[in-house]
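quick one: zinc ion bound model?
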Amino acid sequence: MAAISYELIKTCQQSGARLGKIHTPHGSIDTPIFMPVGTLATVKTLSPNELKDMNAQIILSNTYHLWLRPGEDIISEAGGLHTFMNWDRPILTDSGGYQVFSLSKLRDIKEEGVHFRNHISGEKLFLSPEKAMQIQNALGPDIMMAFDECPPYPAGRDYMKASVERTSRWAERCLEAHQRPNEQALFGIVQGGEYEDLRKQSANDLISLDFPGYAVGGLSVGEPKDVMNRVLEFTTPLLPKDKPRYLMGVGSADSLIDGAIRGIDMFDCVLPTRIARNGTCMTTNGRLVVRNAKYARDFKPIDEHCDCYACRNYSRAYIRHLVKCNETFGFRLTSYHNLHFLLTLMQRVRKAILEDRLLDFREEFFEQYGFNKE
Ligand SMILES: Nc1nc2cc3nc(NCCc4ccc(CCO)cc4)[nH]c3cc2c(=O)[nH]1
Ligand SMILES: [Zn+2]
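yep, here:
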């Protein structure tokens, strides 16, 4: 029996969107879903109970970061990541493919793997498909990602073709190094940049290896939104309908809706918690920078349409005060609200798919949020 199974519940009549469920050893996940990011085995400033209160169904953590600190051996001795961080629902770990390329300078990519410097200590390190799989095997997530290269944007066609072919060879090495396929699902990551033929080549290479799920990588790396949407339009239809599709690193409200419309089932991004820590909130009417002086005597909640803990109990004036004083509780409230905002958005997207009205929902949401003006 495989580690996960995907249940396709309904395809939207208006678009390529689908309603589904992913069944994992730690419970099931309603798709399309947003995954809060807990890079260092914590979704920053929030407790597992608070994540459950807002109906977070799966969280993401990072192989690269946990390998460096505290080390996968310590987490393995604790009984794995679920026990270590007291999260008994599904966990997905990214493989380090992106982190190495986004965090470390002085990297040298070879066939055997990537030589680079620890972004904290500067010491020389080496990460390979086999090493990334050994770390993820020790961490014990329900879903693990193949070790890939996420090329910079833009990248020339020749570079991209060579990179896609190496990423496909690395994917095969990951499968060979996979210790517990019945307990942990390994997803392949499609690359190819904005080149339709290279995306096709990457997808075909990975589909021939028969992964239980597929990610679209190499996006949300600085390309314009219309480039991302175009790449999704010609890439997601190449992927099997009976398996989950995961768009990596995408987390703004408009990109989540546009990704779901193009057949994406899973999303993750540090955006909601990252901007929360500098006092920026996502609201129904667009972004709100709560530290702004105009909120000093504003006793309304962050978002009048939101029923989250922060919006039911605290005012913009209070949260502005906390953020201005660098009080941790202020950042807990903005983080709580932003994650609740995106999780609730995905709940509304799932409802719109069920009612075959996702494109209408997009119009309403974009109008109210002010995206059409952007
Ligand atoms: N293994 C693998 N992992 C990835 C992670 C990614 N994450 C992104 N984008 C994240 C972009 C991103 C980074 C930070 C913030 C907050 C501050 O603005 C928001 C978005 N693109 C990504 C691509 C890949 C990829 O091909 N392969
Ligand atoms: Zn709220």
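The pocket of 6OK (ligand 1) is lined by residues 94-95, 97-98, 145, 148, 150, 189, 217-218, 220-221, 248-249, 269-271, 274 (CB under 6 Å).
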